[in-house]
Specification:
It contains eleven helices and ten strands. With 287 residues, it is of the alpha/beta class.
Length: 287
Amino acid sequence: MEIAVLSDMHGNYEAFQRCVEYTLERNIDTFLFLGDYLGEFPYPQKTMEIIYSLNEKYKCFFIRGNKEDYWISRRYDDDCVWKNGNSTVGAMKYCYTNQTEKDIEFFKNLPICQEIIFEGAAPIMACHGSPDRNNEKLLPNHEKTKSIIDQCPYRYIICGHSHVQNAAVYGDKIVLNPGAVGVSLHSGGKAQFMILRQNMYEWEYEFISLDYDKERVIKELHESGLHDIAPYWSMVTRHLILTGEVSHGTVLSRAMELCREENGTCDWYDVPEKYWERAVEELFGQV
């Protein structure tokens, strides 16, 4: 038994398709998806087409990530704060407007964590962030992570969200993060995922890193109009897929700090462009 574990596609269908092709070439027909299917990239419907196709043909398990909560909130919550935000949420608004009712219903029905059981093998706890919250990171060697793992009865905990591929051992338990397919960190810009292999009752893991057509992705950021809608967010996307360094959250945090320094307060969904520009210049050395 082998399982392909993929997380954090964020709408990068080129990277996603490359990982799927590799998996099928190895005759793996079981998939575990850990959430954040859409986000930063153009043509989100292409990512959803891959997901629906895989779900029809193979055995698939799906977890809801924190990104999915954004789309659900935008659809059902009249008080959703990013409805009228500026370009900080431009990529989110672009992504949302390119989703269908089928997509929203699909996301709404996903669990934030799930016990995965195969006959003769140790059960797996699969989640996006932590078993309790899909926006909580299980960061290696953090006291909060240790506390969560202590309370979790499962030996194998599989999670995404941090975008960093790693394995962390806590006594007789192990936390495995497959990394991110679409926007991996500290990866050299490669798409990353993981293969789990059953060995008697235990699970072995293999981390995979693959290159893909990044130039096509960058071209589509522009031709889709997404770069015009969210220019600095798209600049971060471009830098991240080429280098594997500096997340959107890091740049957003710095832009908010600059905004607060001058204005006293700053909402994440309404950061003026000039602070994004300064944050990008500071962290990347260019605009």
